[in-house]
Specification:
CATH class of the largest domain: Mainly Alpha
Low-confidence stretches: none
Number of domains: 2
Shape: globular
CATH superfamily of the largest domain: MetI-like
Structural class: mainly alpha
Helix content: over 70%
Number of helices: 10
Mean pLDDT: 83
CATH architecture of the largest domain: Orthogonal Bundle
CATH topology of the largest domain: MetI-like fold
Radius of gyration: 26 Å
């Protein structure tokens, strides 16, 4: 009788677990069906509003890339000269991304500390700082850049400000999640000896979270390079502006467009490899060193 009584709770737990598993699978199937239905409905709506049907134009999908590559192949000897010509614009794009990442990361660190429970200087204002980061993250960079170009005129400054604002929201969200995993013991120890809030954050929190901060900032730098190139299409300077001019229909400058594509691709690959290596050393190197000691 005792064994039967002991086995009863186990059977109930097993039955409850199987019921929860079936319920989860049912919900997952419903969500998948809804997602597929929304995708199909959205595609059909967008296809109906196009000037031509998507499937009707499928046979022309590779016409433009073939035209670009064909013209670039005919003028292959001029490609090194194009690389030299557009290199300053590429450097300008990288500078925009670097300055935007630096400014945005600095502001994101402050906002993330002010919006983290247990670390915030003004706990009642945590929702305010979080909504501020949500707003800066929700507005696309191109919208901010268009407004700033209207106010300030074309150039790299509107692009830098626009990307910086979006970076504040994106990194602030990630940094605040990292802060929540930081130990509060150093902070409490510094507070017990009379350290100010800024001293507690700089000495007690940042040494714990800085490797992850740098890792996320490097990842964001890669994203900002692409963003700064895209903003060049709306007159924000950099290599995107040169790409817009080269890709204009009927100008016969597709060899220049191909050179710009190659420069952008090489830059993104190099930055990705370098930042991946640095991120790996930041996030795993310290752990490996501690393990060996």
């Amino acid at each position: 009788m005792a064994d039967l009584t002991a086995d009863a709770p186990i059977a109930d737990i097993r039955t409850h677990y199987l019921e929860m598993t079936r319920r989860r699978r049912t919900y997952s199937a419903i969500m998948l069906a809804v997602f597929v239905a929304l995708m199909v409905a959205g595609f059909r709506t967008a296809d109906d509003r196009n000037a031509g049907g998507f499937f009707d134009g499928m046979h022309r999908l590779f016409d433009f890339p073939a035209e670009v590559l064909g013209e670039a192949g005919q003028k292959l000897a001029e490609m090194p000269a194009h690389f030299v010509t557009f290199l300053p614009s590429l450097i300008e794009t990288i500078n925009i991304a670097g300055a935007s990442t630096l400014l945005g990361a600095m502001a994101a660190i402050v906002l993330s500390l002010l919006s983290t429970r247990g670390l915030a200087r003004w706990p009642r204002l945590i929702p305010l700082f979080r909504r501020l980061m949500d707003i800066t993250r929700a507005i696309p960079e191109i919208v901010i850049a268009l407004i700033l170009i209207f106010i300030l005129g074309g150039g790299p400054v509107p692009a830098m400000i626009a990307i910086s604002l979006h970076t504040v929201g994106a990194l602030g969200k990630l940094f605040s999640e990292v802060n929540e995993n930081a130990s509060l013991k150093p902070v409490e120890g510094l507070q017990s000896v009379g350290a100010s809030w800024s001293q507690r954050m700089i000495l007690g929190v940042l040494p714990q979270v800085m490797p992850n901060f740098l890792s996320y900032a490097l990842l964001r730098f890669e994203v900002n390079i692409r963003a700064s190139a895209i903003l060049g299409f709306v007159g924000a300077g950099g290599i995107g502006y040169e790409l817009k001019n080269a890709m204009s229909w009927g100008k016969g400058q597709y060899d220049e467009a191909a050179a710009i594509f190659i420069l952008l691709f090489a830059t993104i690959v190099i930055v990705d490899q370098l930042s991946s290596e640095v991120r790996h050393r930041l996030t795993h190197g310290a752990k490996l060193k501690e393990a060996t000691q």
